[in-house]
User: Which sequence fits this backbone?
């Protein structure tokens, strides 16, 4: 059974499926005249012509959304044709085959060095790091390193079993950290939201730490509203904790989005390896790293931060290359595309792209503010992402209605409720990305303005999907 629900398909009624075919499909099939559509939930008995198979799949996919109009995702939806060409050239390369594809392996190493330099690692030459399938895998690996280092400390101090490790973070963490804690049996200690604070509070984090805390996660920036968590203050508070109690708690920075924004647009912000307490950092190459889905990065300050026994060496592909990964086989194309984008843009190019995106976000936020019905929780001036809610005097409609109306115009703008202790708050979130131009933002605004009179004329909020949207994590 697939994990997502499938409805009842009319597959058993071959009668209907036969009628849905016309002679063009049959004519395209050199293996015989095709009169039946292929079954959808079991393997067809025999092959069909590539053109026909292509058409079946292609036609069905037309009903997917248009990714460029999707303001729900952080993931890259546009790359240059040259990047696409390189990726096509590399789609047969397996990233794990480092001996077979030494140049791909070398490009991965160079990307790690470039990120180490960008994030101010004390010694980029000895910084360890790897590519992953995305930030989720990078967070699993980083969390595992934190847990193993804690286990070593714990074993030295308190021999014998018993202690349960915990991880301290804001309730606003991305779902990958809930997964990490669940899969690796670590107790999540979550700092709730309070009032107008929608992300981690440094003192509240320090207060949750004890001798079994494997680390504190700080997010740059928060999935829920695009705000940067105060990494420097978190580190300072943990410094004070160490002075008081001797507890030395490492910090992991989840920079899924912000680690590719802040180095270019917020150079004065100190959040990275400049802070000695920051042990590791991850980012999604496929978010503001500007590569199509399928690549993330994890870096550790120094080899001591990544226990040696977690790194595997296999010799059955030839060679003896160390790897730290959950997967074995994985595409090499995204890593090549990351390297392409790094040399194609350079620092100035990245700065220009990210600045344009943030300008679009800020300007759209400003204009939505001017409509009068909305309250902005963030303004798109950290991540190019902002969250808005309706003003208290708006009673006739809610953010779920707005989301639905925008969807009717083709735009995907999710509405969801916040986690504890602000479950009372429902927001719309706009994620602006490269390719969401000022022109497109203007069109979105026009569609929103067009929907306003009808929304205001409603007698009450209409949406029923509020309950279903309460556990939003993306
Ligand atoms: C997107 C995101 C993740 C998960 O990253 P993937 O690359 O989608 O696996 C983790 N943390 C934060 C803060 C994110 O925004």
Assistant:
């Amino acid at each position: 059974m697939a994990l997502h629900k499938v409805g009842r398909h009319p597959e058993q009624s071959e009668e209907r499926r036969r009628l849905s075919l016309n002679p063009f499909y049959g004519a395209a099939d050199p293996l015989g005249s095709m009169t039946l559509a292929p079954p959808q939930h079991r393997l067809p008995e025999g092959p069909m012509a590539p053109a026909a198979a292509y058409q079946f799949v292609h036609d069905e996919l037309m009903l997917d959304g248009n990714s460029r109009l999707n303001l729900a995702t952080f993931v890259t939806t546009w790359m240059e044709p040259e990047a696409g060409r390189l990726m096509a050239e590399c789609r047969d390369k397996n990233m794990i085959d480092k001996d077979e594809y030494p140049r791909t392996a070398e490009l991965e190493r160079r990307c790690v060095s470039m990120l180490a330099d960008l994030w101010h690692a004390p010694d980029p030459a000895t910084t360890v790091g790897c590519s992953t399938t995305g930030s989720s895998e990078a967070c699993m690996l980083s969390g595992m390193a934190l847990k193993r280092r804690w286990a070593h400390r714990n074993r030295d101090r308190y021999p014998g079993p018993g202690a349960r490790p915990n991880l301290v973070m804001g309730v606003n963490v991305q779902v990958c950290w809930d997964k990490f804690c669940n899969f690796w049996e670590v107790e999540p200690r979550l700092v709730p939201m309070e009032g107008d604070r929608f992300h981690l509070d440094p003192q509240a984090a320090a207060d949750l730490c004890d001798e079994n805390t494997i680390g504190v996660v700080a997010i740059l920036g928060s999935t829920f509203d695009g705000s940067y968590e105060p990494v420097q203050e978190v580190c300072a508070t943990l410094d004070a904790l160490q002075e008081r109690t001797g507890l030395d708690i490492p910090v992991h920075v989840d920079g899924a989005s912000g680690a590719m924004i802040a180095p270019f647009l917020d150079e004065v912000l100190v959040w990275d390896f400049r802070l000695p307490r920051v042990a590791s950092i991850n980012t999604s190459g496929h978010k503001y790293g500007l590569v199509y889905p399928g690549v993330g990065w994890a870096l550790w300050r120094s080899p001591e931060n990544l226990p040696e026994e977690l790194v595997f060496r296999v010799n059955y592909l030839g060679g003896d290359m160390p790897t730290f990964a959950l997967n074995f086989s994985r595409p090499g194309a995204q890593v090549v595309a990351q390297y392409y984008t790094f040399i194609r843009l350079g620092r100035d190019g990245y700065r220009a792209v990210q600045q344009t995106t943030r300008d679009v976000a800020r300007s759209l936020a400003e204009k939505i503010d001017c409509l009068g019905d909305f309250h902005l929780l963030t303004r798109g001036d950290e991540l190019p992402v902002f969250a808005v809610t309706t003003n208290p005097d708006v009673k006739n409609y809610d953010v779920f209605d707005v989301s639905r109306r925008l969807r009717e115009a083709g735009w995907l703008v999710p509405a969801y409720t916040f986690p504890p202790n602000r479950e009372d708050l429902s927001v719309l979130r706009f994620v602006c990305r490269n390719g969401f131009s000022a022109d497109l933002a203007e069109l979105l605004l026009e569609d929103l303005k067009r929907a306003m009179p009808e929304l205001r004329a409603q007698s009450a909020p209409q949406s029923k999907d509020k309950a279903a949207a309460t556990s939003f994590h993306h």
In short: The two ends are 24 Å apart (CA to CA).
